[in-house]
Backbone:
């Protein structure tokens, strides 16, 4: 069990550019959520997918889209990047989507928009 | 409206002391409360969790005390070690309703344990 794998670890993009973040959940986990964290502070909920279906959406900007694939890995497509998109992006996975699910987080992707 | 609140942004204790981190919540539907520990440069890691049917959960040096009537809980770290220095997030989720399973996090408390 290699845990939740996120790539890339670090990325620098110019304002207005595009980026793709990838998340590979723990084997067998079909529930994947994304969080944004700025300055090591609050974890802001972005979106949740369960069994390839969007289950809940939080603060995900309309410039971003997230898809979960047949193997349950997830990709976040980010376009028209803005300076305030600079943050750590974490994905987490769990076995089920219900309350009381124990999430395992990845190590995150640090995005810097310049 | 901050649904999960952590009363301290930071807390400093000496090695060997008990660190107490406080958390409160608004939503009565919340029934599962995990605490996550995060070290710099890493993702949050589940430390210990409690369900609302219990008032105490203990795991080694870590204990959660839960008060459903007051809608608050606290994490006690007994015999604090310098290696416990990290950011601790209180979180909550509900088992019913539209947002089932979604974890709502507090802003975190930075714990520093001085040797």
Residues:
């Amino acid at each position: 069990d290699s845990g939740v794998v996120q790539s890339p670890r670090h990325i620098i993009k110019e304002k207005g550019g595009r980026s793709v973040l990838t998340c590979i959940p723990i084997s067998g986990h079909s529930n994947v959520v994304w969080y944004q964290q700025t300055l090591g502070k609050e974890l802001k909920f972005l979106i949740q997918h369960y069994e390839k279906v969007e289950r809940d959406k939080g603060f995900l900007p309309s410039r971003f889209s997230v898809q979960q694939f047949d193997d349950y890995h997830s990709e976040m497509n980010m376009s028209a990047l803005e300076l305030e998109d600079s943050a750590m992006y974490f994905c987490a996975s769990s076995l089920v989507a219900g309350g009381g699910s124990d999430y395992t987080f990845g190590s995150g992707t640090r995005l810097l928009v310049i | 409206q901050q649904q999960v609140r952590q009363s301290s942004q930071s807390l400093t204790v000496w090695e060997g002391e008990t660190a107490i981190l406080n958390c409160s919540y608004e939503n009565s539907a919340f029934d599962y409360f995990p605490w996550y520990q995060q070290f710099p440069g890493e993702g949050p890691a589940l430390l210990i969790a409690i369900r609302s049917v219990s008032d105490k959960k203990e795991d080694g040096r870590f204990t959660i005390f839960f008060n459903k009537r007051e809608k608050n809980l606290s994490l006690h770290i007994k015999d604090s070690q310098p290696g416990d220095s990290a950011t601790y997030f209180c979180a909550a989720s509900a088992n019913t309703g539209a947002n089932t399973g979604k974890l709502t996090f507090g802003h975190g408390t930075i714990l520093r344990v001085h040797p």
Remarks:
- Chain A is about 0% helix and 50% strand.
